[in-house]
Specification:
Number of strands: 6
Strand content: 15-25%
Oligomer: single chain
Strand order of the largest sheet: 3-2-1-6-5-4
CATH topology of one domain: Beta-Lactamase
Structural class: alpha+beta
Helix content: 55-70%
Number of helices: 5
Largest sheet: 6 strands, antiparallel
CATH superfamily of one domain: GAF domain
CATH architecture of one domain: 2-Layer Sandwich
């Protein structure tokens, strides 16, 4: 088949397609004319029926649009809620990072204790609490820092005795079901007791007796901070305590050496 025949066939197909379009157009025109005649014959009744059908169709479209709008609105609320959760989680992670960094930023024992107190006050919202460390000589938990109560009001507890001693012995945190259980303040019954431990070795506890009034329950952030205190605070306290003790020993040895170096009096 040469190009001329191919072109001729394409032309014929186009011609047939055009004829079909003309027939279809003529048929549609006939239907339109027929409908117009029906409308003219029927008068207002036909027009009313057409308008009613159109109104019904529009109402269906409006209803569908409302459903889509409500669905989008719900999705937006869900997205907003998830955004707030992510934002809160980011803030929590930032707080955890800052607290961890502060704990390991110094080897001064008193400074580390001060940072631990600030974390418990500002991030957890504790109002009255004490930090107790185990005295290896007496095997007792001795208070080394307090907030909201005098050092003399904080208990000294035998390892394994009572709630505080049991937490130190077993290395498991304690949380009271009722956060207002210690309103009368019993130094032996904290509402929260967190063991300070390095791996499985407990060096002390944080005993919390009361929290701020607006805090009715602990959040996920609080529990994350409790875990942080159980590990990072214990490491920071232990390291700073060893460093302070070694510094004292070095100072004592240096003083002794200086004394030996002094020239004897004539």
């Amino acid at each position: 088949m040469n190009k001329a025949e191919e072109f001729l066939q394409m032309f014929r197909k186009g011609e047939e397609f055009t004829k079909d379009l003309l027939k279809e157009n003529e048929s549609l025109r006939y239907k339109i004319a027929h409908l117009e005649q029906l409308i003219e014959r029927s008068g207002d009744e036909a027009r009313t029926k057409i308008y009613e059908d159109r109104i019904a169709l529009l109402e269906q479209e409006i209803h569908a649009l409302k459903e889509r709008y409500n669905k989008v609105e719900e999705e937006n609320k869900d997205f907003a809620s998830k955004y707030l959760e992510v934002e809160e989680e980011n803030n929590n992670l930032a707080n955890l990072y800052v607290a961890s960094y502060q704990l390991h930023s110094t080897l001064d024992f008193s400074e580390v204790l001060r940072i631990v107190l600030e974390i418990v006050i500002n991030l957890i919202g504790a109002e009255k609490f004490a930090v107790l460390l185990i005295d290896d000589k007496t095997n007792e938990l001795v208070p080394v820092a307090t907030e909201g109560l005098d050092m003399g009001s904080a208990p000294t507890v035998k390892f394994g005795d009572g709630l505080i001693g049991t937490v130190a012995k077993e290395g498991q945190s304690y949380f009271a079901d009722d956060m207002s259980v210690n309103t009368a303040f019993d130094p032996m019954k904290p509402i929260v007791c967190i063991p300070l431990k390095i791996k499985e070795h407990v060096i002390g506890v944080i005993a919390i007796y009361t929290v701020l009034i607006q805090k009715e329950a602990f959040s996920t952030m609080d529990y994350e901070l409790f875990n942080l205190l159980a590990g990072h605070a214990a490491t920071a306290i232990f390291a700073s305590k060893l460093y302070t003790q070694s510094e004292r020993k070095l100072t004592t040895i240096q003083s002794f050496l200086d004394l030996l170096k002094e020239k004897p009096r004539q």
